[in-house]
């Protein structure tokens, strides 16, 4: 992710002193994403990712650590959290908490083909099944109250920067979504942020899912909608076929219920609205950082319009 907290070799050496990972050989900041500070580190025992948490509350972090261990134990290819000498899973540096996790095989891709979309669908279904008996819970950090609050904060500046039509679209879609209730849909642990930079591939086969720091309890169909928007919808001529490919892979392991199928078109709109609002907020109220990346809000406005036109 983007690097907001800069570490030097002495910082890494001090952190590694509490692990059984050997001496530091090299490190490199990872300039992608917008939430945490991530580094690749290489030690005597291998290659790892070191993450420093920039925004999350300290009391939330043990949930993510234990979730990743649970998912890995139950058949999902995802990072394993390294334990310190005392068995703890988190370290502290510069007044912030962090963790070290294993590196997975494969690489991220800029865009997925049909075979890769099918494999990604299988991976998401495997995640939902692997988390079925995870007994910890986390509420949705970008739920209805968050959404309404963020729209209130950005709507006027959206009108002045992006135009009155964009501001009206925000409030109109929020009104439509407020009338809906998804509480009866099948639910459990979801990833919540499965963009192409959070899934690894060896060829056409998905080899691992990373970055679980948006994970929470929600409808599985919401996770599907978020992932379809992120991976399958390119605003081109073949988007429906791309979505169908992803869903065919997902349903190999977990067939959708009829109510999930019926909800999906509106959840695609909700997912597009959430990420549009998040990107608008980051563009209007940018944070400083040594290696930061602000993503284009316009992409998700266009995706929301795409789904509204299909309604």
TrEMBL record:
One of its GO terms (molecular function) is homoserine kinase activity. Pfam families: APH. Residues 27-256 form the Aminoglycoside phosphotransferase domain. Keywords: Amino-acid biosynthesis, ATP-binding, Kinase, Nucleotide-binding, Threonine biosynthesis, Transferase. It catalyses: L-homoserine + ATP = O-phospho-L-homoserine + ADP + H(+). The keyword Amino-acid biosynthesis applies. It is an enzyme of class 2 (transferase). The keyword Kinase applies. Pathway: Amino-acid biosynthesis; L-threonine biosynthesis; L-threonine from L-aspartate: step 4/5. Its EC number is 2.7.1.39. GO terms for biological process: threonine biosynthetic process. Belongs to the pseudomonas-type ThrB family. PANTHER family: AMINOGLYCOSIDE PHOSPHOTRANSFERASE DOMAIN-CONTAINING PROTEIN, AMINOGLYCOSIDE PHOSPHOTRANSFERASE DOMAIN-CONTAINING PROTEIN-RELATED. NCBIfam families: PRK05231.1, thrB_alt. This is Homoserine kinase. It comes from Mariprofundus erugo.
């Amino acid at each position: 992710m983007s690097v907001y907290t800069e570490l030097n070799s002495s910082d890494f050496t001090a952190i590694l002193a509490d692990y059984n990972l050997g001496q530091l050989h090299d490190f490199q900041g990872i300039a992608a994403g917008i939430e945490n500070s991530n580094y690749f580190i290489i030690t005597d025992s291998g290659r790892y990712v070191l993450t420093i948490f920039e925004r999350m509350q300290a009391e939330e972090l043990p949930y993510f650590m234990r979730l990743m261990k649970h998912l890995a134990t139950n058949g999902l290819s995802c990072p394993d959290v390294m334990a310190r000498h005392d068995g703890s899973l988190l370290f502290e540096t510069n007044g912030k908490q962090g963790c070290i996790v294993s590196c997975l095989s494969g690489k991220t891709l800029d865009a997925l083909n049909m075979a890769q979309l099918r494999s990604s669908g299988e991976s998401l279904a495997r995640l939902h099944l692997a988390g079925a008996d995870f007994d910890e819970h986390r509420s949705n950090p970008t739920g209805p109250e968050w959404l309404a609050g963020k729209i209130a904060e950005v709507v006027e500046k959206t009108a002045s920067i992006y135009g009155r039509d964009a501001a009206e679209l925000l409030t109109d879609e929020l009104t439509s979504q407020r009338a809906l209730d998804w509480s009866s849909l099948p639910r459990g642990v979801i990833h919540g942020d499965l963009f192409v930079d959070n899934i690894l591939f060896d060829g056409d086969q998905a080899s691992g899912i990373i970055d679980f720091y948006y994970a929470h309890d929600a409808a599985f169909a919401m996770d599907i909608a978020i992932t379809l928007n992120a991976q399958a919808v390119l605003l081109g001529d073949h988007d429906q076929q791309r979505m169908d490919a992803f869903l065919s892979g997902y349903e190999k392991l977990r067939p959708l219920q009829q109510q999930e199928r019926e909800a999906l078109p509106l959840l695609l709109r909700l997912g597009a609205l959430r990420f549009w609002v998040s990107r608008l907020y980051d563009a209007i109220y940018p944070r400083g950082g040594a290696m930061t990346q602000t993503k284009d809000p316009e992409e998700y406005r266009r995706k929301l319009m795409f789904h509204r036109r299909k309604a």
